[in-house]
């Protein structure tokens, strides 16, 4: 590598490559985020409760045993507070 490519032990070409990849991915993330917002908006316009949809998605991402434990604790706390 030439001296211009390495400054202070840093491979400038590789650094630029990482930065450009991250910038492209950030742009894609913004696009996907916009798409997700559109789907939520469409669901809301159809009468679905977006807050509940977000909860369902969060629950579906959980490991089944983790979800079961969380639901058990929620029920336990609700019973202790006289909410059931």
Task: Describe the protein.
The mean pLDDT is 93. It contains 3 helices and 2 strands; from the N terminus they run E-E-H-H-H. Helix content is 75%, strand content 5%. Strands 1-2 form a two-stranded antiparallel ribbon. It is mainly alpha-helical and 84 residues long. The N and C termini lie far apart (70 Å).
Measure the end-to-end span. Answer: 70 Å
How many alpha or pi helices?
A: 3
Name the beta content range: under 5%
Category from helices, strands and their pairing: mainly alpha
Radius of gyration, taken over Cα atoms and rounded to an integer in Å: 23 Å
Strand order across the largest sheet = 1-2
Total E-strand runs: 2
Mean pLDDT equals 93
Write a compact overview of the structure shown:
The chain has helices at residues 12-45, 50-61, 64-80; strands at 6-7, 10-11. The protein is mainly alpha-helical and 84 residues long.
Question: Layout of helices and strands, plus pairs?
Answer:
Layout: E1 6-7, E2 10-11, H1 12-45, H2 50-61, H3 64-80
Antiparallel strand pairs: 1-2
Defining key terms:
mainly alpha; 75% helix; single chain
């Amino acid at each position: 590598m030439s001296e211009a490519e390495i400054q202070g032990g840093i491979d400038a070409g590789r650094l630029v490559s990482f930065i450009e990849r991250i910038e492209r991915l950030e742009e894609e993330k913004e696009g996907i985020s916009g798409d997700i917002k559109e789907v939520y908006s469409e669901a809301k316009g159809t009468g679905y409760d977006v807050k509940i949809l977000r909860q369902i998605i969060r629950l579906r991402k959980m490991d089944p045993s983790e979800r079961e434990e969380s639901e058990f604790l929620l029920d336990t706390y609700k019973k202790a507070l006289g909410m059931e």
